[in-house]
Amino acid sequence: MARVKLIQPEDCPDQAALIERIRKGRRGTVINVYKTLMHTPEVASVWLDLVNVVRWKVDLDGRLREIVIVRIGYLNRCAYVVKQHVPELTAPEGLTKEECDSLADWRATSHFSARERAALAYADAMTRDIDVPDAVFAELREHFNERQIVELTVLIGTYNMHTRVGQALQIDPEPHHT
Hints:
Elements: H1 16-25, H2 32-37, H3 41-56, H4 62-75, H5 79-85, H6 97-102, H7 114-129, H8 134-143, H9 146-168
Helix pairs in contact: 1-3, 3-9, 4-5, 4-7, 4-9, 7-8, 7-9
């Protein structure tokens, strides 16, 4: 159960414009992470903008983005992020349920391309160790240009923030994802 009250959209009519932006950016609903962040509307607004940019306004393909997001969800034991993305957001990007499940231990599978594996190793290093070994970064450079490396780095950082906030506040997955 969530550690802080979920703010219902109808309880904050003074934030109608923000709530409408959230609905437009989140498939017509206000999901629990935003119901939590609405305790501070300015934070909810910036969060929405950041997540929308790192997911939709980058030079990284959707499959890669979802692979990285789900992996970070597993690494940080954040069921909220995994359940939000699998399968509703991963399937349209071409990921199978089996591939998503294997992201819990991606090194033990052959599901992912060399490019995807380089991104996964980078996500693991950034998430687990903070310091990225030179060898991991060199492999990343083999598959990504500098713009994509910056975008991937910010995506990983953003979803580390997302999963850590979700875990600390124990944000519940949406009812339709259970």
